[in-house]
Amino acid sequence: MSDDDLTRIDLNLLVVFSALIETGSVTRAAERLRSSQPAVSRSLARLRELFDDPLLIKSGKEMVPTPRALALKGPVAAALGDIRRLFKPAGFDPAIDRRRFRVSSTDYGVLSVLAPVMGELATTPNIEIAVDPLSDDDHQKLASGALDMVIIGRTPERPELYRRRLFTERRACLVREHHPITRDPDVMAGRPPTIDACLAWPHVVITVLGDLTGSHVARQLRRLDKRRQVAVQMPYFSVAPLLIEQSDALLILPERAAKRFAEARGLVMFEAPDVFGTFDYWLVWHERARRDPALHWLIERITATVGDPACA
Predict the structure, then answer these.
(1) What DSSP state is assigned to residue 90?
(2) Structural domain includes residue 235
(3) 233 and 270 in one domain?
(4) Which UniProt keywords apply (predicted)?
């Protein structure tokens, strides 16, 4: 049967066929379908023409199906089931449905957002998360479907992007144990050091998307007409702490990451100067996926695990 032939078929006829084969009566089929007997009779006539078979034959007060009708019963029921599922609202069951999520993030995002939900994801073996590094064209990848979600520390401005704020993050300083700055009076008192105290030491600088001059810290330093000595510039949050263990370099990074590295590697963490401020951390996805139940399942799991209720 060609596509042209299919366009001439009224799918409602399959519904009528199903009612007739199950009730064995035009009257009862009409009642079930909330239709009239003449309308059901006309549909039966069209079905007989379509299948070139009587389908139902009068036998006393009942109508009995022909062999052709009995052969059609299962396929018609299956076809109607498929059609109903087509129009059923999309759902997602992580216990049985398979999904591979493509996420763009820094290693800080993996550490602070994805790592805490891995325990729950371990119970959903059909779920896979593939992480790509952040890039300047992530918004295009979201639009094309190459990415499902971006985890990022700056507010997305494009109107086609949806977002959820997870938490507000402070910046912290990290140095080796016994670093001279740990004897700074402010640091010893549990206060942030002055900006000049921080700038007295070389810095290991983490640059997202490779932009040394575009970071918030760099902009604040320019605003204050301050300069820092950059010892090493790199895009890796997780590797940067290794470079300060055997040197007097200082590292400024998000507080959540700083706490983990301080505990894991015996480093010293203290608050960064207030001028460096805070930033919000976001989940970002595209308008095309706003009705994707699988993606929203993941968003809700992340929010429930690491989201700050004050940011909801």
Answers:
(1) P
(2) yes
(3) yes
(4) DNA-binding, Transcription, Transcription regulation
Same domain, 163 and 173: no
Q: End-to-end alpha-carbon separation of the chain, Å? A: 54
C-beta of residue 127 within 8 angstroms of C-beta of residue 94: yes
Residue 127 and residue 32 share a domain = no
Q: Determine, yes or no, domain membership for 213.
A: yes
| Secondary structure letter of residue 266 according to DSSP | T
Q: What pLDDT does 4 receive?
A: 57
pLDDT recorded at residue 123 = 85
Domain holding 76, by residue range, is 3-86
User: CA separation (Å) from 188 to 245, 270, 304?
Assistant: 20, 9, 36
Do both 252 and 207 map to the same domain? Answer: yes
Q: What parts of the chain have a pLDDT lower than 50?
A: none
- pTM score over 0.85: no
Question: Which residue is associated with the tokens 């009409």?
Answer: 30
pLDDT tens by residue, 248-274: 999 999 999 999 999 999 999 999 999
Q: What was the pLDDT predicted at 122? A: 82
Same-domain pairing of 78 and 125: no
What pLDDT is stored for residue 120 in this prediction?
83
Note the pLDDT of residue 261. 95
Contacts 24+ apart (CB under 8 A), 264-267: 265/241, 266/177, 267/174, 267/175, 267/176, 267/177, 267/241
Asked if the structure places residue 68 within a domain, the reply is: yes
57 lies in the same domain as 120: no
CA-CA-CA-CA torsion sign (73, 78, 82, 85): positive
Q: How many domains does the chain have?
A: 3
Structure tokens at 300: 């809700």
Strand segments (E) across the chain? 56-59, 62-65, 99-104, 127-132, 149-152, 161-175, 203-206, 230-234, 250-254, 268-271, 278-286
